[in-house]
Structure formats: structure tokens, C-alpha cells
């Protein structure tokens, strides 16, 4: 081995000293790890000439490399040719380093660079030794150097002594690593001279070290720049992905095309595919989205045939079944790769990176990119980028699937609503009979609070409802025929409950439309019980589950019957708002809040009928009073109403017992002895305070209070 001062020194140390004295020092200073001040030695003419007259091809290609990603082996081949000419070498060989496999391989111009490989270790070829030590070697006689029993490779064979084309043997070898400032060996440049070509000089070594050092620094700079650029591109893309796919409904095909397009551009792949996973009979089934035949068409298309990973071989199936990323450098030498696909399509697969898209409940899809451009393979950095990218893909894919399911549910809901509207319509015979007999005899005590419909008059409840409505609203303000349909539809939608039925609705006469509909489609259970069993209504609304449902059904009937067809749109909106507030007010949980506010206002003598808030509180108390007015009827009527209510309560209590719960005493049929005490408490805590505050603002309701006490 030949060195500058008789002592063996590392490549990096040589770079530090030699580059500090060159005109390229300013450029290299930011990349070299150590810079020591030394006396500037005299530069020989050849060295100065090279530094001042850097070959234009080197600068042009390097500038291109620093501007964007190019084929690194091609760039290094240009550098090799420059060094060959400057050092007057007989030939030059370029080796690229595969750090993942701990190997080097011949990088021939325009040829497959992955065929001939050597492990990075000592006592093989000189290039493997240099890659292992990361130090230059200048051997005057490769014949006699025992460190390299296999010498240098030539024309694909191992020879200690190789004969060149002219017949002269190769003797002198200068082998230098291309090392980054971080100490990563990227490539090996091996210059050699034939026997008649003489030896490499110290100037040759200086020039080679300067150029390779400069290349190492430039490559490192570009790697850092590209890493930042890729990270920025990834960040920008992920932000766009979040903004586009989480702010609006996106077609699945477009989302997948964008995902694969970005993956290909970021990772430098030739082709990409996406598999949407769906479990079918415990078997993994996927819809395949693949590229078309037109090279200019980058969109992905859904194939008609489903891929069954339980039967299909291939990398995507393996990833789908295991959920583990697969990175294949040489597909045809990997037993997991199914060559039949290439044989059918004519496409040649070289390298594959296939990654699962994982969701909360398992695998959502598989994305696969094929053939790293420029003849390489997908690196660990590519995997890391892909992994980050796949997390956001999972979110976008999950969101898109949820949107699709939501849209399906919406369509099903619309279909069900159309079907419901057909069922909402009353019987034609009932409607005809109502139209022929819209009036009936009104009982003389009908307008008294103590009046309650008797069993013989149930059939005339629609006529009584129409009479009360027309007492409040003039016939010119509504469509009477549609009102008849509305009343009959309302009666039809009340369930056959013991208490919450059409009879109860009819008895609640204030704010007539709201009162008539305030318990529409009541299931006979309390809000607390619906929340306990996670009923759909408790999931749909945040509070007042039943009351919100009653209002929703009310508006469905109103929109279908169009009883307010003569009113303007704004007026109808105001009426709808009044109906909603009135129906929600029947929730006893809200009643206590409303009563407390109204009581404070009345106690302070601040009540004002001109105040909209005060009027709203009164209407809420009126709705609750009418809802509870059954307790203000004569005893025999109140008892019948209460008995019906207890029948509902006991049914709920029985269900709670089956669930292993302990129901309240009013809902436990085994505690009928507590009924008197429970009723007294209910009257004192709920009913009497309600009608008491009502008589303060509406003195003509005094009879309700008197009957309650």
C-alpha cells in the first residue's frame, strides 16, 4: 500500500487535510466532519489544472443531480471516465454498495447491475476490502498483494491476474471509496493500469481522493435535500388528502387513483395496484383497482373479477392474510412471487413493495408498487415513507367506506320513508266517512276542565278534534280536507298502549296540533329506559329522545297532509318551531327547569305577556299541565287513567327485571301496595306545583288546581 507520508491513514483523514488546501475547500468545508488548519502546500500543475478546469460533463451531471434525482450509477460512470482520463488509467470499474444486503455489485453501463455481487468482507476482491475498510488502496502490484486473493473481477470472472484486450496483464490498481461525510460508503471506483502503463502516482491519488470526496459530499447533500423534499411532498400530500377526503364525499375510484399515483411518484415506481379488502364467508375477498393498458392513462380502474386471497397466490394475497409488509428486491428469485401473472400479461416484474392498509378492525386494503425506476429496488427509506403514507390512506379509506355506508343508509331511509308515507295515509273508508260526517253533537260540558271522553264517544274523537281546531283556526286559514286526513293519520300512528294512546292525545287539548301529536308513536317506555338499552332513539338524539321522535313524526305527517298549504313558507316555519318547542316541553326533565324560571319571574312580579320568553315559558307549562291533566279529573276518571299508566310501567319493570335490574317501585308489579304513597308524592312534587304556577298566570285554570288537590 502506498500513502502520502509513509503512514496508513483513513480515507476521511486524507480528505480533511487535502481538501482544506484545495480551491474546492469552500465547497467541501460544510460536508467534511473534521477541518484542521495546515500549511498550504504547493500545488503541482496537474492538480491545479484539474481543480480549475473541472470537466464540464461532471459539473453538468452533478448540477442535474443536485437539482433533481437522476440515475446515480450513470452519474458515477461519468466521474469514472473523467478519472480514467486524468490518471491515464487503462480502465475503470464501478461498484455500487448495497448496505441492506451488505454487498457490492458491478454497475456496468446499460446492463443489469444486480447480477454479479460480492459480500463486503476481506480476503476476496480489492473492491470488497475497500468497501469494508472505507479506506483507499493503491497497490503497485496486484500479483503480489496477498490481501486480495481474488484480485479484481474482469468480464464477469474472478482472476488474480487478468489479461486485457491487448494481451497485457493488469498490475497497478487504485481503488477509492465514495464516502459521505456521515461515513456511509456509496460506491467504489477501481482504476487499473496494465503492466506497460506504469504505476499510479501520488498526484493520481490526490486527484482521485478529491473528486470522490467531492462526490461523496455532493451526494450526501442531495440525499438530505431529496429526503426533505420527499418529506415535504408527503406532508403536503397528506394535508391535501385530509382536506379533500375529509371535507367532502369522494368517489372511491378517484381516491384510490390519487393514492396510487402519489405512491408511484414518491417512491419512483413503474406501476401500482390497490386492493380493497372485504370479508366474505370468512374468506378474504378484494376488489382490484389496476392501471389500464394506456401508458398515458394514470387512472386506476376496478376490475370485474374479485380476487379471493384464500385461493390466489401472490404477494398481495400474502400481505392481505398476514398484514405484514413485503419488500422483494428480485421477484423472479423469490419463491413467494407468482410468475404466471407476468406470463399472461407480458409485464416483467423486478422489484415489489407491498404494504397493508390497516384500520381499527383489521386490514382495509393492500397497496402495491412494482419496479423501482432506474433498475434499483425499494429501500428501507421507501418503506418508512410508505408506512407513514399508509396510515393516512387507512383514514381516508375508512372515511370513504363510512361515507358509502352512510349514503346507502340514506337511500334505504328514503325508501323506507316513502313506504312509511303510504302507511301513514288513513283508510279510504274512514276518510270518506269523516268527510260525509265532519260534525257531531258536542256535549254540554265539553268546555269544562272536568269533562273527559267516555267509552261510547271514542268513535267521534276525530270530529271533536276538528271542532276544537276550527274553534281556534278559521277554516280559510287551513285546508279542511287535509286536516281531516291529518287527524286520522295521527290516530293511526298512536300505538295500542294502555296510556300513551290517541285517547291521551285527545285529552291534551292545549296548543291543539302539538297536543294532538305530543306522544305520536310512543313505545310505552321512558327516556331513561331507552338510554339504558341503547335504543336507536337514544343514539339519534342527545336528549328528550321520545319527544324529539314525536316531533319528527309530526312533521312527517304535516308535510304529507299539507294542512297549512294556504300559509307562507316563513309562517309555516314559525308554526313548526312552536310545535317543536311545545312537544319537547312535555319532557318532565325540562319541565322542572321551565317551572323554576317562571316561578322566579312571578315571585319577583316581573311577568310580562309582551315578553316572548315569558310567553314561551307559559306555553311550556300549559303543555305539561295538559299532559298531566288526567290527574286533575274526577276520581273515577283519574283512577282509570292511572291504572292504564301503571300497566305500561309494569311492562317496563318486567323487562328491567329480565335484565337483572331493580325497577322503581312504581314500575314493580310486586309492590302495588306502594301505589297510594307513590301517587301522593307524584301529585305533590309534579302535578300540583305545575297547575299552581299555571293558575298564577292564567287564573281561569283554577279548576285544574282544585281538582288536583
Brief summary of the model shown:
The chain is α+β, with helices and mostly antiparallel strands and 709 residues long.
Structural write-up:
It is a single chain. The chain is an alpha+beta fold and 709 residues long. 50% of the residues lie in helices and 14% in strands. The protein contains 25 helices and 14 strands. Helix 12 (428-436) crosses helix 14 (480-493), helix 14 (480-493) packs antiparallel against helix 19 and helix 24 (675-697) packs antiparallel against helix 25 (702-708). It starts with 10 loop residues before the first helix and ends with a helix. Residues 1-69 and 156-167 have low confidence and may be disordered.
Discrete helix count? 25
* Structural class estimated from helices and strands: alpha+beta
Q: Mind telling me the CATH class of the largest domain?
A: Alpha Beta
The CATH topology label of the largest domain is: Beta-Lactamase
CATH superfamily of the largest domain: GAF domain
Question: Main β-sheet, in a few words?
Answer: 6 strands, antiparallel
Number of domains: 4
- The count of DSSP E runs of length 2 or more, i.e. the number of strands, is 14
Strand content: 5-15%
Quote the distance from N terminus to C terminus.
Answer: 117 Å
Please state the average pLDDT score: 78
What would the principal axes of the Cα set say about the shape?
Answer: rod-shaped
Oligomer: single chain
Biggest sheet, spatial arrangement of strands: 3-2-1-8-7-4
Please compute the radius of gyration using only Cα atoms: 44 Å
